[in-house]
């Protein structure tokens, strides 16, 4: 018969042995198989520290994938890769063991300065299509780029690959704008090709405004396609067509180009401007605030705005300039005349407020006449009737020059007014240069 103490000891030994076998089996089951201690199977990738980029874009930029087996050198390469992009000032990684593998945490800190990207003449893709394709190749490109780092070069390479795929015989060039001083934008241009405009069309334009738009756009036929230039021309020439007809919130989108033909280095395109006229506004009223030196009725007579009529924003700009010039004739050369519009979209109407800050009365300072012989100069100086200390009249130099033409003939004339805010005086220099 086995003694009780010996039986108890044997039973404990067997129990410990069984537990050891079970635990050993569980550890083997959750441990990566056939991996050295320096290799990590990624079962989770988390990105923190950035509000600018989506985690999936940062992960794509890193080149890492779930299930991938990486080593320390691979992770250090990821830190280098993300840092060289210029998008981040700091990139850190942290590893956490998991029964299934390794959890990776990337912590990034955004760079301070990003600037917009402009594509001057990439006419083979729509704006959205181009962005999608570049974003697919450069995951951290979101329409802007950091002012330092390799992202500009990455975009250049990606854009060149897109052109090569379409068999476009042009080269991608990037330019930092401006050339000197802080960078404000990056411009990408396709060089080696002459891209010119054949026709210009407008989508969304009403029949009433379309003839004016087409007539204004006629001057652009045959000119070189440069997106920023076309954008500026649209704001300067096309939008006023709508502003003058009370479409106060009209918008004209970026032009979209369609390649018509390609012959060697010459590319011909048709251009379409998307137009969004918006609502047409009538005037609910006009208020003039701050006028003391001049009668309000006098100012109102210069402003072609009447309640119940449609709002002509272009004419209104000219009227306000006339008000400012009138103040200048009374010595208020520093008067500030600004317009505040208060639209009511529900009606739709607009209330205009003209706010005037008259400032001080300025007086005539010194006069200098240059470019003429001494005798003629002395005679003109004597004919100048604004004497030092007189209330300055900003319209007087123009009238003086017109009178001088009658006496001395037609010269190239420049008038320069030096306004001294401290002394409230205006020095005038009139320069006469003979015409070739």
- Can you tell me the CATH superfamily of the largest domain? membrane protein fhac
What structural category do the secondary elements indicate? alpha/beta
Q: How many domains make up the coordinates?
A: 5
What name does CATH use for the topology of the largest domain? Ubiquitin-like (UB roll)
CATH class of the largest domain: Alpha Beta
Give the % helix.
25-40%
Please compute the radius of gyration using only Cα atoms.
Answer: 37 Å
Order of secondary-structure elements? HEHEHEEEHEHEEEHHEEEEHHEEEHHEE
Question: What would CATH call the architecture of the largest domain?
Answer: Roll
Name the overall outline: elongated
Task: Report the β-strand fraction as a percent range.
Answer: 25-35%
**Tally of DSSP β-strands:** 18
Distance between the termini: 137 Å
Strand order, largest beta sheet: 2-1-4-3
Mean of residue pLDDT? 91
Number of helices: 11
Task: Report on the biggest sheet.
Answer: 4 strands, mixed
**Low-pLDDT regions:** 1-35
